[in-house]
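Worked problem 6 (solution included).
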Amino acid sequence: MDLILTVLIITLIVIIIQLVFKSIKRPDNYPPGPPFLPWIGNTMQLRTEARRVGGQHIVFENWAKQYKSNVIGLKLAGEYVIVVNSYPLVKQIHLNEVYEGRPDTFFLRLRTMGTRKGITCTDGALWYEHRNFTMKQMRQIGYGRTPMEAHIIEEADDLIRYIDQLDECHIYPGSFLATSVINVLWFLTTGQLLKRNEERLNTLLSLLGRRSKAFDICGGVLTQFPWLRHIAPDKTGYNLILELNRELNNFIMESINEHKLIFEKSNGTEESDLIYAYLKEMQSGEKDENGSSNETFDVSQLTMTILDFFIAGSQTTSNTLDLVLMMLALRPDIEEKLFKEVHENLNEKEFPLLSVRTRFPYANAVLMEVQRYFHILPITGPRRALWETKLDGFTVPKNTTVLISLRSVLMDEAHWKDPQTFRPERFLDEDGGIINDEYFIPFGQGRRRCPGDLLARSCLFSFLVKIVQNFKIESDEQSKLCTTLVPGIMLSPKPYTIMFRRRK
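Solution. The predicted structure is:
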């Protein structure tokens, strides 16, 4: 009996040693990086370092210097992760089909209400079919054309009226900018307008803001250790995501159900927005010329697609405009130069559409420099290697998660020379025209490029020019202007206050 017990104990010890060795062993020719700890890999080390230095993006850059490599190999719990730095490698990731996949993690499924649908977090045939269908329908209903411009004009005028009503009091602009951006996209998607003071909308925007700060680009501990949601649902952010999902689902489904009623009454002739286009496709049982049917078109896929647009449009564009206004308050010299350009090139009855942006090179340069300098999405992705491949001489195993360090491109010292200096003139040539710099890629590249980039650029340009045309931005000692951003899924400004003084 003692012998059997001894054999069992020795066998158990051997198995444990083998499991430990397997969990800390790096794949052959895997990129360099910090050693893996048994079972947890680099998870805790990354979280600890991120808290110490102010974000994961800084940790990744420090490790790139420490290990003298622009490709860093990590392991987060049981998931292999590589981080890519430098423009040449980032470009390879953006343009190579092997990196077009998305990881299938607990956090990404939780982000899409437990599904693997929509167009942001999917890949393969589903992603390709629905991305193409969505963008085709958006163009048909006016995306990038006159109908979209008309909504931007309407929202810009509403924004100016709202600022006027503030009566020159100090306010945080982030509290009202997102509504203006969302309304343009929401109208194209649903054919409806949202009221600025709508309680549900404000609740959603608040929840999205909390979500952005509660998680990181890797999804926090919920991605590596999803079982922790049962032990600490609040601390892990699990309850926050569930609350946000409920609110978003109810918000979106309310619009979808209204469309269904109208669609049924009109016998499917309504096609004025994205929801009607999806409903019509769902109703059709015909196959296209390639033999593809509409089996993937259902209410949950429609809901997730709208969700993707809502999440993307509600924060990145409004946060960027938020930071533009903060920089104008910090740099009166830039604001004055910008106003001079607007005053000389725009009459009071004309609206600054993106189509006339060539008349406003300095305004464009300011927007570009804000996007470069603050890089609110310092780490983009995540991507998934669809098959084993090579990158910079290293082996990338199949299904490895790939994180793209956009910050390493937008703050590359060798390219930009003085990246830590806020200098819009870097985007202007000797004749005052815009320089289209290859390293300026805030919206990505390739087939995974942000589908809403045109809307974002249009809103940023039109809203900024209209604000500068009508108001002078001022701050005081209590404004708490700070260029150090709060880390999270995206970087966001710390709350500050400015005053919009009406120009005479």
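Discussion: The longest helix spans residues 299-330.
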